[in-house]
Structure formats: C-alpha cells, structure tokens
Amino acid sequence: MGAAKALGIAFSHIPDKELAWHDLHRLTQDLDKNVRLEAVKALGIAFPHILDKELAWHDLHRLTQDMDENVQWGAAEALGVAFPSIPEKELAWDDLLQLVQKTINLDKIPKTQISIYENRQLKQKYRFILSSAYHSMGKVSIFKAASTNNEENFKKEMEDAIQYFEKSLQQETHSNPAKFCLPFYRSFYMLTFKKEDIEAEVQNYLSEAKSAVGGSESKEQLIEAVENLGNALKEVQNLNEKDFISVKCDLNAYRRYCERVADILEDTEEIAPGASKLIRKGLPIIDDRIKGKIAEIQRRSKEIYKSTKDTPLMDFGQRTCRQTHELSLQNPLDLEIGLGRIINTAKEWCEYITHEDKKKSACDKLKSLENMDVQEKVMAFSEIFDFISTNLSIPRIRIVHICEVQQEVVRVAIVQFCYQLTKSFPFVIENKEMVKSKIFSGLDIAKNDGANIVCLPELCLFEAWIPEIKKKYSDMIVISGGYYKDNKNTCPVIMKSKVNLIYQSKITPAAPEDKEMWESGMIPGDSIYKYETQFGKFVILICRDFERFAHYFRDIDVDFIICPSFNGAIDRFHIEANNHVTKNPSYILMANTGVFGGSSIFAQLNKNYFYRLVGEGCKDEEDMSFKLCEAKIGKDEIIIANFNLTHKSIQIPVPSESSKEKRSVTNIKKLTIPWI
After folding, report:
1. C-alpha span between 258 and 230 (Å, rounded)
2. 527 beta partners
3. Who is most buried in 90, 427, 523, 576, counting CB within 10 A?
4. In DSSP terms, which residues pair with 565 in a beta bridge?
C-alpha cells in the first residue's frame, strides 16, 4: 500500500518511468482493495508523466467500476486530477456521471440485511464517492472553461463548476477540498460577469477561504496562499479589459494553484504535524535555480526585442520583453500567471518560424508545458524560448516617405497577361516586343479609366522601358513587376517623385532562383520597403515573399499589400490572402502571369454584393471568400476597382439606406487587354 502511494508522489522524478509505470500498473490489479485505492490515487497524480496513456486510461476507467466503494471514491478523485491528460475526455466525463448516478441509485435502495452501523458506514462511503465525483466535475468544468474559445461556453462552464463544487460540499464529509476552491471561483465569476464591488467581493472571499483553512498554527502558511489568491481577485476586473485569451490564460494559473492548495489542505487536516512539510512540497518555491532560468528568459527576450527594431514586429518584441520582466520572483501564483501569458506569446512567435518542421517542434514543446508544475515549466520553457528565438526570420522594414496621403478613395488596376521567361539564369521575358505591347496596352486602359496605381506581374519588364513609362504615365504609380539586375530580382516603383526611390528586391528565392541549389542564383534583398505616397501606403512582397512575410503586416499601418508573381501555385497564396483580410481589414493585390492566371484583389466586402460580382464574371458562384475579382488562366485581363483607404472593413450593422453604407471597394470591373 505504501509502495503505491510513494509511486504517485515520486513518479515525475523517477528516471526509469517505464519501470515505475510497470509497477504501478501491476498494483492497480492487486487483490488487496486498500492497495488498489492507493494505486488509483497514485495513477491520477502520475498520469501526466505516464508514457502509455492508453493503458493508464484503461486502468483508471476499470477502477471506476471496482467492487469496492473506497476504490470508486479514489477513482472519482483521480479522474479530476488526471483529466487534462486523459486522451478519452468524453468517456472520462461519462465515468464521473455514472459514478454519481450509480451512487445516488444505490443510496436509495433499503439495506434490510445489514446492521444500522454497517448501513451508516455504507452511506458514509456513498457520500465520499459523491463528494469526490462532484468535486472532480467542478475541476473538469474549470479546465473546460480555461480551454474554450467561446465566451458563452466560458461563462457556462464557470457556472457548472460552481454548482458541482456546491453539490460536493452538500455531502458533509469531514474533509472536502471544494470548501477552498468554491469561494475563489464564486468570487471570480461574480467579478467577471456580475461586475460586483471588488473590495466587498474580495473580503467575502478572504473570509470564506480563511475559514476553510482554519486557524491552527500548522496551517498558517496556507493563509499566505489565500492572500495570494485574494490579490489575484483584485486583478480580475482588469482582466475584463484584456482580450479573452488573457482571461482564460490567467484562469488556468488560478486553477492549478487552487488545486494544489486544496490538496494540501486536505492532507493537513489528516496529518497536522506534517503540514508545513507538505506545504513546502506542494506550493512552488522560487529558488536560485529558478531565478537563474528566469534571468536567462529575460536576457533572451531583450535580444528578441533588439532584433525586432525596424521590423513589423517591433511592438510584439517590446510586449514580449515587458512580459518576461514582469515574471514574479517572490509570489508563486504571480509567477504561474506570468508564465502562462509569456507561453501564449511564445505560441504566437512560432508563427514566425519559417521552417515548418522547426515550427511544429516548437509548438509541440509549448503544448507539453500545460500539465507541468511551475518549476518544471520554467526549466523547460527556458530551453524552448531559446530554440524559438534562434529560429526566427524577421524582415527589416524601411520607410520610404514620399508624401502624405492626399485622397480617401484610390483607383487601382491589376494587369495580367500571358508571357514566359527564359530557362537560363538570370531569367528574362521571351517575345520582348509582344510583351511590351501588352504592358503599354494595359497601362493605357488603366490611365483612361482613371487608375492611380497599376500593378504588373513579376519579371515582366526591361529596365530600358522605365523612362518611357515614367514620361507617358506620370500621373500614376506603376508597380512594374521588375527584372533582374546584378542578380537581384528587383521591382521598381515608377512614379513622379522628388524623393530618391529605393526599389524593392525579392528576399525569398523560388526553386529555380535558389543559389544554394545552383551554381548561380538570386541575391536576396534584406529589407521590405513601406512606400508612403499620395495614393496610400503599400508594401511589395514579390511572389514567395508574400507567403513568407504577409503575416508580419497584420498590425502594421499599410493600405495595400502588393504581390507581383510568376507563380504556378497561386491558389495557395489565395488562401493566405483571404485569411489575412478576414482577420485584418486591408487590401491585397496579386498580379500574376496569364500562363498561370489567378491575378486577384482581396478585401472585406458585404457578401450581399457577391451575387452581382458573379454575374459580372468577377467571382465563381461557389466562392464565398473575400476574393472579389480574379483574372482566369490563359487570359490577358485587367481588374480595376476603387479602394476606400478609410473604411476597409464591413460596416456593422449595415444601414437601411444604401447611400449611407461605407463600402471598402466599389466600381469593380474586369476588362480584356487587346494587343497589337
């Protein structure tokens, strides 16, 4: 019996976990019911660290149906402890429901064949099963609340948790950890959803929680934990001003801390002389080793912040640095809350790891932190954070300020025509004169239609044509698509300007351009230029640069992301473009060769207008994305539309009078480009 208990306590620290698991698995099948009771309790504690979770779950499930009521009680308790790591969560929840229902039904059956004393003993066992099952259901509901992405579900799970904790307390057992958890979660709920007076609610919580802890000398250290949770409650209303993810993140920290303190409280009531030792073991101690790892995390965050200067992620880098330096070195609950927030931030950083295998590795490692205690979490996170920071790919962003924006509505044209490139590097267009004719024909259409900006596809230009374009189309900005110069894939911005214009160079080579593969290849650029002009602010992401860097511009003040490309996989870019404008009201313009088609404009627009866009030949009928117009494969076509630089999102609610509606994009049309 003692061996089973010891395995649960020590399991996470045992080097040979496979052997330890073999012993624990054997003990769950012992003929002695007392051994099985301690084994199932140990199973709940050890569950997150057991490698064979399928077999561990099979054992736990089997023990919920044990013939002995005490083992059932232990299984009910273990389900609540192990639930976050159980693979079959729905079945685990069903086991708790069945334990409750079966026990209620058994309690109703008259016991005529046993003595009054035995009857009392049996009823006491039933109360313990119900108390543990309801308490576990409350813990599970808190876990679900902290895991949901829906605010209504969050509220419902909190309400369910409070009800389960109350039902647990109604069983009147001599030891019930719910008496510690319930006051905190009830106060948390009242402050979050009922907006109660914070001082009164916190004082109410402190009174109830301290009463639960009791006043004996052996429990004084638990009062400090109560005070920590009381201080956390004072921050709850501040959480409401934050995003929903932060609220969930902090609740997760409260959940783990509450459960640890409640478990210790239960043990101290049974073994008062050992209470102080249990407290020191259960509540995290921020020792010198942890402090050293936190210092490493803080140092690495400073390096990340420095690396993000002059990049689209500068604000993100600053937030990361601030979060790490707010990690508490005194209060273990504050440390756990801070770690939860910085781990969420690290998950966002994973999106900026361009190597897919390394990105997946980092995400998987971060997910593995969820069930670790705070000391383990600090140690593991330090290594993961170091891995993430050394694998980030962050582009420099340089401002090219030409003038302030001078008009609210800008007319833009996307030109697509069929052309091919030579097979040898550096690549240039074939049929030079024919391509030139198509370009100038498209520019003429755009000029005559009042376009302010015209976008051409990748590598469709010869440098010698620039002076002619600049002279003939001086009232427009021409994103020229570019050419190779000094082995750089360069896209000139052609416009009348007193400012020395820096041309955008491609950063991410396509397979035929990659000099790591070939003896000669593209020399990559090192910066993305943000052009600030009279017709809005825009960046140019040439072909693969769009897929690699578009997400950096989610929170950057740009009106247009322009993507010139020579791309046979344009559909993949369309998915990224739609996701981008769905989350971030902005405009994405893609100009591709007609050989592959797919030149498009992406913007948020009320979907009531899609029917007409289908009728005008701009959209496919089944396409419900924010791709508003697309030039088809094999076609020489030009897309022209007006873009509102002030109102880029869908107006909600939509005004009854259409004249009052603020539309992002208007006057969309697609024309055929004739050529001579």
Report:
1. 12
2. 396
3. 427
4. 592
DSSP string, 607-621: GGGHHHHHHTTSS-T
Q: Which domain-ending residue is among 107, 133, 159? A: 133
96 and 215 part of one domain: no
Whether 618 and 554 map to the same domain: the answer is yes
- Rounded Cα distance between 541 and 565, Å, is 9
- 142 is a domain residue: no
Shared domain for 346 and 256, answered yes or no, is no
111-137 per-position pLDDT tens digit:
555 555 455 666 777 888 888 899 999
Q: Which whole number is the average pLDDT over 458-463?
A: 95
Please check whether residue 18 lies inside any domain of the structure: yes
Q: So what's the pLDDT on residue 265?
A: 54
Maximal C-alpha separation, the chain: 108
pLDDT at 317 over 80: yes
In whole numbers, what is the pLDDT of the chain averaged over residues?
A: 84
Mapping DSSP to helix (H, G, I), strand (E, B) and coil, where does residue 502 land? coil
What whole-number distance in Å separates Cα of residue 180 and Cα of residue 174?
A: 14
Highest mean pLDDT out of 253-262, 300-309, 599-608: 599-608
- More confident of the two residues 275 and 424: 424
Q: Are 135 and 165 in contact (CB under 8 A)?
A: yes
pLDDT tens digits, 46-83: 898 898 999 999 999 999 999 998 899 999 999 998 99
Closest CA relative to residue 40, chosen from 12, 15, 76, 93: 76
Distance from C-alpha of 215 to C-alpha of 222, rounded to nearest angstrom: 10
Q: In total, how many domains does the chain have? A: 4
Report how far residue 483's alpha carbon sits from residue 464's, in angstroms, rounded to the nearest whole number.
11
121 and 212 fall within a common domain: no
Whether residue 303 sits in one domain with residue 264: no
**473 and 382, same domain (yes or no):** no
Return the SS3 of 588.
strand
Structure tokens at 213: 């802890």
The answer to whether the peptide bond before residue 653 is cis (omega within 30 degrees of 0) is yes
Instruction: For residue 168, tell me if it sits in a domain.
Output: no
pLDDT band for 571, please (50, 70, 90 cuts).
very high
The residue type of 153 is N
Please say whether the beta carbons of 353 and 359 come within 8 A: yes
pLDDT confidence bin for 230, thresholds 50/70/90 = low
Got the DSSP string for 437-505?
A: HHHHHHHHHHHHTT-SEEE--TT---GGGHHHHHHHTTTSEEE---EEETTEEEE-EE---SS-PPPEE
The answer, yes or no, to whether residue 280 has pLDDT greater than 80, is: no
Q: Cβ of 173: how many Cβ atoms within 10 Å?
A: 16
Of 372, 390, 408, the domain-final residue: 390
CA dist., res. 291 & res. 249, Å (int): 22
Q: Residue 416 is part of a domain; what is its CATH number? A: 3.60.110.10
d(CA 474, CA 494): 9
Does residue 66 lie in a domain region? yes
User: What CATH number is attached to the domain comprising 105?
Assistant: 1.25.40
Beta-carbon count within 10 A of 110 CB: 6
Residue 287 corresponds to which tokens in the numbers above? 């020792």
404 is in which domain, residue-wise? 400-672
Q: Are residues 487 and 608 in the same domain?
A: yes
The answer, yes or no, to whether residue 217 has pLDDT greater than 80, is: no
Query: Is-contact 414 421, C-beta < 8 A?
Result: no
Give all strands (DSSP E) within 574-664, no chain letters: 587-592, 600-602, 627-630, 637-644
The H-or-E segment that residue 400 falls in is strand 396-401
pTM of model > 0.70: no
Chain centre to alpha carbon of residue 637: 39
Domain identity same for 332 and 382: yes
The first and second tokens of residue 234, run together, are 């004072």
